[in-house]
Design a protein that fits this description.
The protein is of the alpha+beta class. It has four helices and 18 strands. Helices cover about 15% and strands about 45% of the residues.
Length: about 270
């Protein structure tokens, strides 16, 4: 027997996902629906599927599935959108929400005006695995910086990010042998003190408008290589995020918008 699932499509800087309250609408095979619903012409169209669930260690849990059905450990843009979703749907009245993810519990700080959440700041924890990576022969770039934000990133600094074929190069680097579980790839250009232009190839989704963890990884890589300081504006195709980090032992904070696109129902 088929049933109707209520969903909300939301986006953070153009990084768009389908959000489902998994407590109300359990989905036994989310990988399948992530693939089917993410298709732009025959589905809803998105970068993937996000399930909002219960947790015994936080206010809510998040599971996120990319457009190819693979499960991601963390997504900064999606976590901000969850903050907006749970507050505006009456699931919480808190302006500080704990979110249980595969990369740990994250703290969401909601900025509310007239009953609506317009910005969310996320405590992304302490970045890890910060080290240079030699890419080897056969790649157009000699090296990059590895950064883990709960998920793996490879940040490559370039002179002109507009000239990088993100799809061609990013798809190759996603499967670089240094990263056995594949990697998200960011191409970054310092355009002013404290300001970086970044484009991204996301593991499992391809070229996207923005990537929250990618923006964080880029700011960390800039700080670690002397290209940036503690506060960085990371400008992506879909817009800008503010990233603050005091260094290796400190927590990193990311702040940006969350937007509801539309609500709907779909049969399964």
């Amino acid at each position: 027997m088929r049933r109707k699932i209520e969903f909300t499509k939301m986006q953070g800087l153009g990084n768009d996902y389908i959000y489902v309250d998994a407590v109300k609408y359990p989905l036994p095979n989310p990988e399948r629906y992530a693939v089917e619903w993410s298709r732009p012409h025959t589905g809803i169209g998105s970068d993937g599927l996000v399930l909002i669930g219960a947790s015994d260690k936080a206010d809510f849990s998040m599971r996120i599935f990319n457009a190819d059905g693979s499960e991601a450990r963390m997504c900064g843009n999606a976590s901000r959108c969850i903050g907006k979703y749970v507050y505006e749907n009456g699931l919480t009245d808190k302006d500080e929400v704990l979110l249980d993810t595969l990369s740990g519990v994250k703290v969401l700080r909601l900025y509310v005006e007239n009953g609506e959440v317009n910005r969310v700041s996320v405590d992304m924890g302490v970045p890890a695995d910060i080290r240079p990576v030699s890419l080897g022969d056969g790649y157009p770039f000699a090296e990059g910086m590895s950064v883990s934000m709960g998920n793996p990133h490879l940040v490559i600094f370039v002179d002109d990010v507009s000239k990088v074929d993100v799809a061609a190069v990013g798809s190759r680097l996603e499967c670089h042998p240094f990263f056995p579980d594949r990697v998200n790839v960011e191409f970054a250009q310092v355009i002013a003190p404290g300001k970086i232009r970044m484009r991204v190839w996301e593991r499992g989704s391809g070229v996207t408008q923005a990537c929250g963890t990618g923006a964080c990884a880029t700011a960390v890589a800039a700080f670690s290589t002397g290209r940036g300081g503690e506060d960085t504006e990371v400008v992506m195709d879909g817009g800008a995020l503010q990233v603050s980090w005091t260094g290796p032992s400190g927590h990193l904070f990311m702040t940006g918008p969350a937007v509801k696109v539309f609500e709907g129902k779909i049969e399964v």
